[in-house]
Structures are given as C-alpha cells and as structure tokens.
Write a structure and sequence with these properties.
Layout: H1 20-33, H2 46-53, H3 57-69, E1 73-76, E2 80-83, H4 96-104, H5 136-144, H6 166-177, H7 194-207, E3 217-220, H8 223-234, E4 240-245, H9 249-257, E5 261-268, E6 271-272, H10 274-280, E7 286-289, H11 303-316, E8 319-323, E9 348-353, E10 365-368, H12 374-384, H13 393-401, H14 404-430, E11 435-437, E12 445-450, H15 460-469, E13 475-476, E14 490-493, H16 499-514
Helix pairs in contact: 1-3, 2-3, 3-15, 5-9, 6-13, 7-13, 8-9, 8-12, 14-16
Length: about 525
C-alpha cells in the first residue's frame, strides 16, 4: 500500500487559468488509469498531500471529492482513501520508459507542433497530456472528450426512456426481422432506407417548414457523424468554422475530427451574431448554429440574425449547418420554422437526430442537403462509412408512418412540460436566492445562474462535484465554453426524472449550495 509521503511530483501550472484542484484531480485520474496507482492503493492523508505539493487542504479535498464522485477512489471508514477496485473507465498501459514523460507533459493544442489556432480562437483544454503514440489531432480529441455521468440521477440530461413504447417498437422489429425481406439484410444504400427518408421528409415539411424531397435526406449514425461528413465534403483541412460560444461540445469534436479549426462566436439574447463571427474569422465559410433552441442557453435566434446569416453564406459562398436537436419539445408559443425553410439560396445543411426524441442507443440521425450536394455527399459517404446500420431504419420508418412517433412526441411534450413546472416549483421553495432559474418555452433542461445569496458568483465545477457525492447529477455551464468561461451556472435536466425525484434532488442541491464547499 502507498501512503505517507509525496506520491508523485505533479506538474501543476500555478499561473494558469485552470484551477489547481482540477489539475490535481486530472493528475491522479491519469495515474490511476495508466496503472501507476493500482486498485487498492492507499492515498496519503489530505494534510500530507497539501504539505508535499504546497497546496491548501481545501484544494486537495476538492480534487479528492471529484475523484470520489466519479468512482476513481473510495473511502473506508476510519482508514482513509483508496483507489477503487472497479474503475469507471480504462486506458491501455503505457510502456514503462514513457510513463513519467506521459504524466509530466501538459500541452495545450496551441503548444502542439503544427497546430495553428484561428483568429480569436481560445480552445478550452482540460490539461490532459499529449498521449504517447497519438497524433496531434488524437491528443486534442482525447482532451476534449466529455466525462460520463450518472444518467439515472436527477438532474442528468436526456429523455425519459421508461416512457418509451418499447413494446410497440419490439413488435415492429419482429415484423421486419423475423423473416427479413429479400435484400433488406444486405442493403447498402449509402443514403439510407428509402421509406425512412420519405417519412422524415414528410414530417419535416409538415412540422418544421423544411423544404426538401426524400432524395435530399441522408441517414447517418447520429448528428455528430452528419456534422463530420458535412465538414469533410465542404471544407479543407485547417479551414475555419464558426461555432457558438457556449455551445455543444459534440459539434466542436466532430469538426476537430475532420481537421477543421473552430472560431468561437459569443451567443447573446438574439443568438449568434454573424457580424462578430466574420470579424473574428473573416476567411470562414462554414457556420454551425442551433437557431431554434440554442444549446445550452436555450436562446432562439432572431429573424434579423437569421436573415443576416443567410446573406453571409450567400456573399461568402459558404455554408450553414443548422443543428435542430430538440425542436419536437416546444411547450408554448407558436412552432418555429427551420432556418432551412427561409433560405432561398440552398446554403443550409439541416441536421437532426432521434437520440433525444426516441432513445440514444438507436444511433440514427439525418442530413438534409441541397439538391446539388446530394451526389457528392453520397459518394463521400460510401468512402467514409458506406451506410448507416440497417437494423433500426425500417422499424423507425414504420414507427413514424403508423402514427406512433407523433403520439409519443405529444405524450412526452405534456410530460416534460409538467416536469419543467416541477423543477420551477422546487426552485422557488428550496433554491430561492441561491439560484436564478427561468422557465423555457422548449427543451429538456433549464439553466440555473448564481443568485443574490451567492453574490452572483459560483464555482460550478465544485458544486457539480459535491452534488455528485450526494447523489445529484448536474452539469457545469462553464464546461460548455471552449474558451475562458464567460458564465458559471448549472444545467438542470428534468425530462428523464419524475416530479418526486426532481423535488428530492432540488432539496439536496439547496443544502449543498448553502453549505461551505
């Protein structure tokens, strides 16, 4: 067992923007995953670590709380802290001769050879090292990877899977796959299953104001693959793309995987301002936006900004990727038409997914591409991935055609609206003054900003770590920023949780925020 003295000489950047507790957490996490701290190893006491690393005991305690919350360590009553016997994830062991180098190297993307950040681009890098044997791109992707969370605890994001009609889904699947039609089991249509494309086109035309025919639909394995495909086809390596700040990390990851540099454009109450984007990255010809319900802030892009964005794409001969990730869940106000339906120039690529409206494991999404781009996209798709998995495509087509999809959306819309109300109610009772939470006309989560009792200031990562230790899952708003976070707050998912679970988690969250961290 280990214990007593200094465990390892950690390379902590005491003048950097990343908090010291986060650097310490990441250092321990990497040592656990690469085997330098094997399961069952005892960690030195907090005071010993604080003394040896010249840190405050609060800093050490916060790092260990995060490790405990994520399952990397465990406490034994009266006997200290130990590396957990079952770890939440694993990483291959590194060759012994490179382990020390691996642990001590702390390179941001801008420090990596050959990396050239875009104008005003400030990527948020968690301090993970350049991994032995990986490319520069691989190291960056590993660094921006999202940390898994407990999806069963309030306030984790996501849909209510317990309310999905899996019995209906199973009957449809049996009908198609007990004795599959000739050709279905070997179908390799790069564009997707034709009846599914027809069903999606009809749905989008009626409900979202999207102008398209089935031939413009390309079925992909989730929205991120669609974004990556669009970037591969339309942009060259090291081209720039405008992305919303804060925004969905999956978009930045998909673009990075395609070798594209991202230029961050702040989001205000009207959405992304393309004028700011153009000033920050004048050579960019690609913009990614979620105009109907921006993630994570929930902002709806104004008509003025939408028209300006379309005009920018026309003038620059560029492209707009419209991410419409949760448009089905709008609870009040009139339905919003898609940006694609406003575009007379054919410069918008529309991307949607069934992960949130149905269930994430389905892994089916779609692109709507302008007619002139259909053939190049199909040809590129054949090279990159051939076709999306066929198992769920005919089932989903029938699910939509038979009316089950519309019925499920209507049922979930009512359920989720009631759960948002439950969250707002518990916020008034248990979080008043601590967090400011406003209602949203759409979506599956609410944003909680620091209230008057906190002086309008909070360390959202510390609250997330403390909440996880108490059985409450939430997400830090600051993690949605790729650059230096301009806001701190909490993202509280409500869709997947009962009103009772929301009330209980709200009470615990109030106690956590009120207590010294």
């Amino acid at each position: 067992m280990l214990g007593g003295g200094n465990l390892v000489a950690m390379d902590l950047d005491r003048d950097g923007e990343e908090p010291l507790y986060r650097q310490l957490y990441e250092g321990f996490r990497l040592m656990i995953l690469d085997g330098r701290l094997p399961s069952g190893s005892r960690l030195p006491a907090n005071r010993v670590l604080a003394q040896d690393l010249s840190l405050s005991r609060n800093t050490v305690a916060n790092a260990l709380q995060q490790l405990l919350a994520e399952g990397y360590v465990e406490t034994r009553k009266g006997d200290g802290t130990y590396v957990a016997s079952a770890l939440p994830d694993a990483r291959p062991n590194l060759p012994e001769r490179r382990r020390s180098e691996h642990l001590s190297t702390r390179q941001a993307p801008s420090d990596l050879p050959g990396y050239h950040p875009g104008h005003h681009e400030t990527p948020h890098f968690t301090g993970a090292p350049r991994h032995y044997g990986l490319s520069r791109r691989g190291s960056i992707l590993a660094a921006i990877s999202r940390t898994p969370y407990n999806s069963e605890q309030a306030f984790a994001p996501g849909p209510d899977l317990k309310s999905f009609p899996f019995d209906i889904w199973a009957r449809i699947m049996t009908r198609f796959w007990r004795r599959p039609a000739p050709g279905l089991a070997i179908s390799r249509d790069a564009g997707g299953y034709p009846p599914l494309k027809a069903a999606i086109a009809a749905y989008l035309g009626a409900m979202r104001g999207v102008r398209c025919d089935p031939g413009q639909i390309i079925i992909v394995s989730g929205a991120q693959q669609g974004i990556n495909l669009a970037a591969q086809v339309l942009l060259d390596h090291d081209d720039q793309a405008l992305v919303e700040e804060p925004g969905y990390g999956g978009i930045r990851g998909a673009l990075t995987a395609a070798g594209i540099r991202t230029a961050l454009v702040p989001v205000d109450e009207e959405g992304m301002d393309i004028a700011q984007g153009e000033s920050r990255a004048p050579l960019a010809r690609f913009a990614c936006v979620a105009p109907s319900h921006q993630y994570p802030l929930g902002v709806v892009m104004s008509l003025r900004r939408r028209l300006a964005l379309i005009e920018w794409a026309r003038r620059r001969q560029g492209w707009i990727l419209e991410d419409d990730y949760d448009s089905e869940y709008r609870y009040s106000g009139r339905p919003l038409a898609a940006l694609q339906g406003l575009d007379p120039t054919g410069r918008v690529i529309y991307v949607g997914s069934f992960s949130k409206v149905l269930f994430p494991a389905l892994r089916l999404g779609y692109l709507v591409v302008p007619p002139d781009l259909v053939d190049p996209f199909i040809q590129a798709r054949r090279v990159l991935d051939d076709h999306a998995a066929m198992l769920g495509q005919p089932v989903l087509a029938s699910f939509i055609e038979d009316g089950h999809f519309a019925a499920h959306v209507r049922r979930m819309r009512r359920l989720y609206a009631a759960r948002q109300e439950a969250l707002l109610d518990v916020a008034k009772k248990e979080l008043s003054g601590l967090l400011d939470i406003a209602a949203d006309e759409a979506g599956m989560h609410l944003i909680a900003l620091p209230g008057a009792a906190l002086g309008g200031v909070m360390d959202d990562n510390r609250i997330v770590a403390a909440a996880a230790q108490s059985g409450v899952t939430t997400m830090a708003l600051s993690t949605a920023f790729a650059g230096k976070p301009a806001r701190h707050g909490l993202m509280l998912g409500y869709a997947a949780h009962t009103e009772e679970a929301i009330a209980a988690a709200g009470r615990r969250l109030g106690e956590i925020i009120s207590s010294p961290l």
